[in-house]
Amino acid sequence: MDFGYWQKDDRGVLKYTSIIESSVIDVEEDEQFWNIIVNEDYVLFQSLSHIYSYDISSGKVSLLVSNDNINKFFKVNGTYYYHSLGEGLFTISNQRPLPISQSDFFKEETVILLFEHESKVHFLTENADLYRLENKEPVLVAQSDLNFDLTVYNALFLSDGSLMLGTISNGVVSMNLDGSTNYVINQSDGLINNTCLTIFEDSKKNVWLGLDNGISSVNVDSAYSIYHDRDGELGTVYTSYKSGNILYVGTNQGLFYKNDDSLDFTFIDGTQAGVVYY
Q1: Which residues have a Cβ under 8 Å from the Cβ of 236 and sit 6 or more positions away?
Q2: What SUPFAM superfamilies does its record include (predicted)?
Q3: Would you say residue 142 has pLDDT above 80?
């Protein structure tokens, strides 16, 4: 495997430079690099067993961390953290790893996200439990209110104060800091794939999802939403009417309704005989 950078030549064509080859670094066979963190002077590359620092001005590469099980690598307000299963939670100071907590919790639980909220470091585990760090120990803040098991692979603390969780096989989940769910988006709602490996929020608050097969974008602030009738149950919609929190739609299959807090339409018995126009 490799890490490096792309740069345009005089004709504007991108040309790749391998940092590993130019620096003569011995990486492990099939070593995969999963995360890149950039600051003003350095670029940090994280694999599952190493963290390398690349000095942008000099081109020098330094090995910061060598560990058999680096789960995740984070930057929170200029401080670098990494979590290692079986070892604990660490920070990197003066290009050296320093333990923050080597309690049983951090050795056994998988930490997916670290972020700062109200001047406290918070973190999320792979089962969507939210904690804050108090005196180097975890304090439970909230648990997800979803009634099915989640395996969270990646997550992001968004600018609106909510969390976007990327899961294995369940799409993405928008969760508030009290554990309540805003919405779930999966393949039936238009995602290319139900496994989300990375999440990015752009300057216009669009959320970009790096999936197991392709890229999807979520316009979080959009006033519109799309209902995908993938099974053809609704048919062709001719009319609609909103009464309170209930939306009625008349189609060539009959009359259906949906509550605001529901994602699916329900057929009204006895209306299948004719086309509903109004």
Answers
A1: 251, 252
A2: Tricorn protease N-terminal domain
A3: yes
Is the distance from CB of 54 to CB of 40 less than 8 angstroms?
Answer: no
Kindly report, residue by residue over 93-114, the tens digit of the pLDDT. 888 999 999 999 999 999 999 9
Is the predicted pLDDT of residue 277 greater than 80, yes or no?
no
Q: What pLDDT digit, counting tens, does each position of 21-65 carry?
A: 888 888 888 888 999 999 889 999 999 999 999 999 999 999 999
Q: Please, how many CA atoms are within 13 Å of residue 226, restricted to the half-sphere of its CB?
A: 11
The gap between the terminal CA atoms of the chain, to the nearest Å, is: 62
Residues 177 and 131: their CA atoms lie apart, in Å, by 10
Q: What is the dihedral of CA 209, 212, 215, 221, to 10 degrees?
A: -30
Is the Cβ–Cβ distance between 70 and 48 less than 8 Å?
Answer: yes
Phi and psi at 190, nearest 5°, equal 125, -5
According to CATH, what is the number of the domain 109-226? 2.130.10.10
Where along the chain do its domains lie?
A: 109-226, 230-278
The amino acid occupying position 225 is S
Q: How far apart are CA 94 and CA 30, in angstroms?
A: 29
pLDDT of residue 223: 65
- CA–CA separation, 238 and 251 (whole Å): 5
